[in-house]
Design a protein that fits this description.
Shape: elongated
Radius of gyration: 20 Å
Strand order of the largest sheet: 3-6-9-12-15-18-21-24-26-27
Largest sheet: 10 strands, mixed
Number of strands: 27
Helix content: 10-25%
Number of helices: 4
Structural class: alpha/beta
Strand content: 25-35%
Distance between the termini: 51 Å
């Protein structure tokens, strides 16, 4: 159902069984997949590509122009996957340059008042709490949980299955499988409760804890800590991911 009181540009591609409520705005060069729901006063702007089964709530703005002084009016994109819930007053910017994209995966829940800036990449099944703000070029891997009012600085990365508690501000990367808390944002232990709930074995969780004890309590350099992990901790997919994530960090990891 598309309300006659909504504005839908003639060039927009609208899938099957899409509901667009009165006063929604659908710009040119937009694609909306099957079974999506666009609430009143939501705006889906030029360059947005949306998959199936998404729910977009009132006053959300998707595909807004990037707030980046490097932006020169290029045609760029915001790519949104399937089954996402994007609540009221969320703003998601498209990419700065034509060869880039802002990307939102599948099954994410983005709470009211969140701002996701240009060229951010959000994985699958993440929860981003009320009023959180991500600066440009941030990366969230799968299954990340943000509390409310979190500020992520330019280019920060957050590893999978990590939880960041309400009010944190960070300028460095947050490794996978951990809880980050306090001010300044610091390592606060393994995200054990969530990991156990999601079926990670006790053995793997203990190995993660051992690895992070070496990193954060080993009184050695990060380079040496990674060598010690390789020697002392039984290797698994999760331990390898921790090492790969840290090795790839350009900003360094939280203390």
């Amino acid at each position: 159902m598309i309300s006659p009181l909504a504005y839908v540009d003639a060039s927009a591609k609208i899938g099957k069984n899409v509901t667009i409520y009165p006063f929604a705005y659908i710009d040119k060069n937009v694609e909306i997949g099957d079974d999506c729901e666009i609430m009143p006063y939501a705006s889906v702007m030029n360059g947005t590509r949306m998959g199936k089964g998404n729910r977009i709530f009132q006053n959300a703005v998707l595909g807004a122009e990037p707030q980046d002084f490097r932006f020169k009016g290029e045609d760029s994109t915001l790519v949104i996957g399937d089954q996402n819930v994007i609540r009221e007053n969320v703003v998601i910017n498209r990419a700065t340059h034509g060869d880039g994209k802002t990307q939102i995966g599948n099954g994410n829940f983005i709470h009211e008042g969140v701002h996701i800036s240009h060229d951010c990449h959000i994985g699958n099944h993440c929860v981003i709490g009320y009023g959180s703000k991500l600066s440009g070029d941030c990366l969230l891997e799968d299954c990340v949980i943000f509390g409310g009012n979190i500020l992520a600085s330019q280019g920060c990365r957050v590893g999978c299955w990590s939880m960041i508690q309400t009010g944190c501000r960070f300028r460095r990367d947050i490794p996978p499988y951990i809880v980050a808390a306090k001010e300044p944002t610091s390592y606060y232990g393994i995200n054990a409760m969530i990991l156990e709930h999601e079926g990670f074995s006790d053995k793997v969780i203990k190995h993660m804890s051992h690895a992070y004890r070496i990193i954060y309590q080993g009184n050695t350099s990060l380079f040496d800590a990674l060598l010690m992990i390789k020697d002392q901790v039984p290797m698994s997919e999760e331990i390898q991911h921790i090492m790969d994530f840290i090795n790839a960090s350009k900003l360094g990891i939280i203390r």
